[in-house]
Write a structure and sequence with these properties.
Elements lengths: L1 H24 L18 E8 L18 E7 L14 E6 L6 H13 L2 E5 L10 H7 L1 E2 L6 E3 L2 E3 L3 E12 L13 E9 L2 E2 L4 E6 L7 E8 L2 E6 L5 H4 L2 H14 L13 E6 L6 H14 L7 E6 L13 E5 L15 H12 L3 E5 L11 H7 L2 E2 L8 E5 L3 E5 L13 E3 L2 E5 L2 E2 L5 E6 L12 E6 L7 E4 L11 H14 L20
Parallel strand pairs: 1-2, 1-3, 3-4, 4-13, 14-15, 14-16, 16-17, 17-26
Antiparallel strand pairs: 5-10, 6-7, 8-9, 8-11, 11-12, 12-13, 18-23, 19-22, 20-21, 20-24, 24-25, 25-26
Length: 515
């Protein structure tokens, strides 16, 4: 009888274990982040900073309690950033309303972000430190209680608020790690209307409540830090909401780096393909890869650099974008070294699933029958050497290059610049009816066709991956120009559906140039 019982018990033990493992594999159980990579990850240490505004101290801790992987401490008042010599927190949560901050605290606050300490900003913390403009850039919003505030010629209205408002909350990005698997929900909270949102945020939540701004929550990057902002969180109704608690827990995990970066794309990998020739294809590709990997305000980007084509082409399957900096086809019948018919078929399939494509300089040369149809579809234009009138001109005279779409994400953080030497492509053949957005122009073709002076542009089709192209890049020296380099790297981020930072990507090329 005992042996029989043991056999039955062993059978059910194995069955239970199998079900449990299956549930984890299938995602039916929400595991503590990192458990799959090793269950020995230390708990996320969180400092919750309050002060300067009343709140329900009895129910507020419910927002953070009950998470086995999160330890939190509430610091009510004080000056938490005056001395950070013993700082040991992974994430700081701001729920304060302090109006003043010392220069020492500002500097230390920025040092923490530069270290990669995550930041979560809740509710009325949007109105903290009103005289510190950099804080507004960090969190992505301006909420000023000053009447008649004017900055850079822009007049800011004084926001209004109302207690006890019912919200319908909409999930804008259902694939982001913070909101994945969540559905829209209702919540009773305080409304804010009339405050200003800065560009560069990846919006997660919105509302149709007329007493409130449309946006409710978003993510950003600043230096090496991840930033999660959520407007909701005035009182006990929000603190007790399971949806709100889940958002806060995931927001903390995301800010701590325990969840994928997200920002609209599960993958943050960029693959560079270059070919041998008389252009700086390899040198420039490696420079771009280095810049993306070391960028201070766009973390977690993986890069690969391959000559012509990766030996294991399956590496393209999880890429966000492919950047082709190569020689091109020519009028003498020379084929494109990277874009062979077989490879274009593979890229076309991946692009239909969201892969971004970037073409630089000579890689834009295509024959009408072979490469041109795909180039028109992928980036919206190509260099036509078969009678259309596309031209190239090598110039060692200074040439002014001007941004023409200042509101486009690619245009963030750079201004009009002058290139001392380069070869520009003009009078390119653009696809008819395509949603091409000109990014940069250079005045070399006063009598050319429409768009003749456009030398960089973006394409956002209704479906599939994005496209970006730049017709310059003959000399590696052009990338020494910070504005030109930032435009190019912003374009790669945008094509990869990676959030372009508010001030554009910040990189260093110290020691990168041999000549």
């Amino acid at each position: 009888m005992t042996d029989k019982r043991n056999s039955v018990w062993n059978f059910f033990s194995v069955l239970i274990l199998a079900v449990a493992v299956g549930a984890v594999v299938l995602g039916l159980v929400e595991r503590a982040p990192g458990a799959g990579a090793g269950a020995n990850l230390k708990k996320i240490s969180v400092l919750v900073i309050t002060g300067g505004h009343g709140y329900d101290k009895k129910t507020f801790p419910k927002t953070f309690a009950g998470q086995s992987d999160i330890d939190f401490k509430i610091a009510d008042g004080g000056k938490p950033f005056e001395d950070i010599s013993k700082w040991d927190y992974d994430v700081m949560v701001l729920y304060n309303f302090k109006q003043k901050i010392s220069e020492t605290s500002k500097a230390n606050f920025l040092k923490l972000l530069a270290r990669g300490v995550g930041l979560v900003c809740m509710h009325h913390a949007v109105a903290a430190y009103p005289d510190w403009i950099e804080y507004e850039k960090i969190i992505g919003a301006t909420y000023s209680l000053k009447k008649g505030l004017v900055r850079n010629g822009m007049k800011y209205m004084r926001p209004v608020w109302k207690h006890g408002v019912d919200f319908n909350v909409r999930i804008e990005d259902k694939s982001h790690p913070i909101t994945k698997g969540m559905s829209g929900f209702k919540i009773h909270d305080e409304s804010y209307r009339g405050w200003v949102h800065h560009p560069g945020s990846h919006v997660l939540l919105t509302t149709d409540q007329k007493l409130n701004n449309h946006r409710l929550a978003w993510t950003r990057f600043y230096k090496k830090a991840r930033v999660f902002f959520i407007q909701l969180g005035h009182g006990s109704h929000a603190f007790a909401s399971k949806d709100y608690q889940q958002l806060m827990a995931r927001g903390i995990r995301w800010a701590a780096g325990r969840l994928p970066a997200g920002a609209g794309a599960d993958s943050r990998k960029v693959v560079f393909l270059w070919s041998k020739g008389h252009h700086p294809n390899a040198e420039s590709s490696k420079l771009f890869a280095r810049c993306l990997k070391t960028a201070v305000n766009a973390p977690d980007i993986k890069t690969e650099v391959h000559e012509n084509w990766p030996a294991d082409e399956s590496t393209l399957n999880d890429a966000s974008a492919v950047v082709i900096y190569s020689e091109g086809a020519d009028k003498n019948g020379k084929p494109h070294p990277v874009l062979t018919p077989e490879r274009m078929k593979i890229l076309a399939g991946l692009k239909s699933k969201g892969l971004g494509v970037v073409l630089v300089h000579f890689s834009l040369y295509g024959s009408r029958k072979i490469e041109a149809p795909k180039m028109l579809d992928w980036v919206g234009a190509y260099y036509d050497f078969e009678g259309y009138g596309s031209v190239h001109k090598v110039s060692r005279k200074p040439l002014d290059c001007s941004p023409v779409s200042p509101d486009h994400p690619i245009s963030r953080g750079w201004k009009k610049f002058t290139l001392k030497e380069n070869e520009m492509y003009h009078n390119l053949k653009f696809a008819e009816g395509a949603s091409v957005v000109p990014i940069l122009t250079a005045p070399l073709m006063p009598q050319g066709k429409a768009g003749a002076n456009v030398i960089a542009w973006a394409l956002a089709p209704k479906s599939g991956g994005r496209g970006f192209a730049f017709g310059a890049g003959h000399f590696v020296s052009v990338w020494k120009n910070e504005d030109c380099r930032r435009m190019m790297l912003n374009g790669i981020l945008w094509a990869a559906k990676i959030q372009v930072p508010f001030d554009g990507i910040q990189t260093s090329v110290s020691g990168a140039f041999k000549r």
